[in-house]
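Handout, section 4.2: multi-component inputs.
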Amino acid sequence: MIQRKLITCTINGNKIQTMVDVRASLTDMLRNDYRLTSVKKGCEVGECGACNVMIDGECFNSCIYLAVWADSKHIRTVESLLGSAGELHPIQQAFVDEGAVQCGYCTPGFIMTALEIVQSGRQYTRDELKKLLSGHLCRCTGYENIVNAVEKAMKGTAQSIPETISRHRPATR
Amino acid sequence: MHVGQSLPRVDAYDKVTGRAKYTDDLVDKSALIAKVLHAQIAHGLVIKMDIGEALRVPGVVKIVTCFDVPDILFSTAGHPWSTDISHQDVADRMLLNRRVRLYGDDIAAVVAEDEIAASSALRAIRVEYEEYPHVLNPIEAMAPGAPQLHDAFLNNILKQTSAGRGDFEAAIQEPGLIRIEGEYETPMVQHSHLELPVSYAYIESGRIVIVSSTQIPHIVRRVVGQALGMPWGKVRVIKPYIGGGFGNKQDVLYEPLNAYLCQQVGGRLVKLEISREETFFATRVRHADKIRLVSYVRPNGRIVARSCDVYANQGAYASHGHSVTGKTMTAFRQLYHEEKAHRVTGHTVYTNTPAAGAMRGYGVPQAMFAVESHAEDIAAALNLDSLTFRRMNMMPVGFTDDFSKNVNYYDSLNQCIEKGRACIDYDRKRKLYQNQTGPVRRGVGMSLLWYNTAVWPISLEASSCRMVLNQDGSVQVQLGETEIGQGADTAFAQMTADVLGIPFHDVHMISTQDTDITPYGTGAYASRQTYVGGMSIRQTANMLKEKIISYAHELTRMQIYDLDIQNASIIHRPTGNALLSLGELATEALYSLSHSEHFSAEATYQCKTNAYSLGCAFAEVEVDIPLCKITLLNIVNAHDCGRLVNPQLAAAQVHGGMSMGIGYGLSERMLFDEKTGRLLNDNFLDYKLSTVLDHPRLETRFVENYEPTSAFGTKALGEPPAVPVAPAIRNAVLHATGVAINRAPLNPHELFTAFVSAGLIPTEK
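Output:
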């Protein structure tokens, strides 16, 4: 009865093949099947940005992205940013240093958009950065320190961001 | 010293890596899924419910309706319990309600194998209602003949209280007084924490275990026990990291129903997650208030007498109820001190709207919007400088409140005003923006802020703490006061490190509260965590230190009064010698063949003080009159919250409060369909939070007057920053346009009406 479809995709550098319920969102698949719980649910209709992940280098709200659409795509979540010895990515470090974290629920989503910004290699003005971050809601920080952290990461590391993806091995079903 | 330093949050690494686990991250995927059926009328009675078709949906395990639940009324307010019946919260709801009191009231619940089955079953339930007329507005609800929500509360008045000072009628007879009146309205808003309310429950060893996104685990335990009619010790509540609360999770939300559903399926694991849409109407909101102020003032600006009438929209159920209105009244009474007399009356009124509870500021954002808008209006009417007017009337230094015994120790308000006006260049802009013409105008405005730190003497104020020493000299620390994003765990670790004389990284905060393990504490509410938690930390750390020193005396044979712990070593004070490390002592203590001892300390501190937390906000706006659009150009909050434990985190707290204040002032309002009583904007598209694009740079300033009653010199900072922002914006708009807008939020709809009646926007007639 339940319609399932076989998809093949890469999650945080690991190639996987899995049957997904055609009705499932990518959020559901990442959270439930692969326990990538950095992908948060805040609204499930694409309004808050907490479920933001990178798909082929571009950020999407995974709650309104069907799991079946992930077929042949490269998906990246915050779990992939850590170095092999647990060292923080410069963007993560900037969030820590700038006091950009409070309850932490919106944080992984923001960090993925920050990664997209930093990877673009472009230097944006503060107003441009705010526009780029405006798909994310945060109720704790007033955004001030988040914008500071993204600005710092962009200025400090635009040229030197390592492109390595740590070999995070997702759990199987 | 660690207190006073901007140390990184103890949970920052886990949160930036996505490792921090919130409730839904922890639940086993075998969980059954529960969903709630919400009434589709605003007021009435469920007469019949047909669940036959719903039960046939594949995957449905159990359906319970309002006809099945125990006949027990309970209260959801996250207050400390009172053993005095007259002070107990109003118990006015059941797990599921046959009597429907709001559009969206809980009337049935489904437990199913998965979400889709649960949702399908909800749609298949047939409900027959007997419908009653509804009422959405407190003034109408109090009128004779209005629909009645709760039998025990005549005219829907949950509670009405009055207070006063002096002989009001005599005071207003003074010749030459100018009477100034204003009516101010604040909107119903929702906390909008990013994590949805979620819990899961299972039965283990005959006891029910509930893991929940709550600010108040120990209170949840008590209320679940009350709601289900079971011994409180049979309930265990675990609180992991939570994605914000802001007072909504200072109410017991769906934990009792979750526990009940778990019981109904034989103790199997059941998860109950509420959607964003449900969060808006089925959890809690901030009371929408109508506040009428009348002031009798001498031409020089001195207030002689004043009165205040508060009408607070309680919604369908009592929750925190009149406690919130009580604080609105106190804020009115205390920020300004008239010469002769005041009187204040508060009405908290049931209506067929979502239940109002605690939300960041607990009635004070409403009070300050009214009082500080009114202050500006009086100054304008008398053609006085509004700062001069405020200074002439505000709470004087040295004032002691008869009831709370709070003392206004310092000239905090003036000190904060000085910081704020300098930051925003107030005096120059105030002159510069006078007499503007043209469609786009600028203005600056400000608002003071009055706040209280904790809840003494209204209710119990206590905190318990436990510390355990490890072999390496590090310690675990547990408190009932919860980390909800504000940074409490980090502040607690800094305090512990200082009292024990150990490094910050040797303090391990146990962030998760578990009512089986964590010492009793009432949780995160008011702005009391560093104040009350600090007291029990200091007491407990001193007890632990005493035990350690006593053991050091045994080991070293040096005098107890000469020994101290500094930088994780036992120090002989007269010589300054380090005798042994704390780790060496702790290892010896655990494995000694002559005297083995596990070092721990646990204590409750009962706090019998409270502290004023004062400050202000200054805002600069640009108003596009034809577009009815306000751009916030600059904003600064200045606070005296005593000594700062962690300046970076303190500023971050202020940013968040300011942000909430910006939404309150400019865009947030829950809207209802008058005809059906249904909430119209139950999502983040239609409910207008302020986004990153609506925020200018958020400037923060602090005055650090050491709070004499506090263990570390600290006092409230969690809620106060949200309080003065909306009135500061409103007063800036008044300065820019000459138009006094008395209804928040100042969104284009309000501005249009106000600008049309002021003649700023021409109308064709």
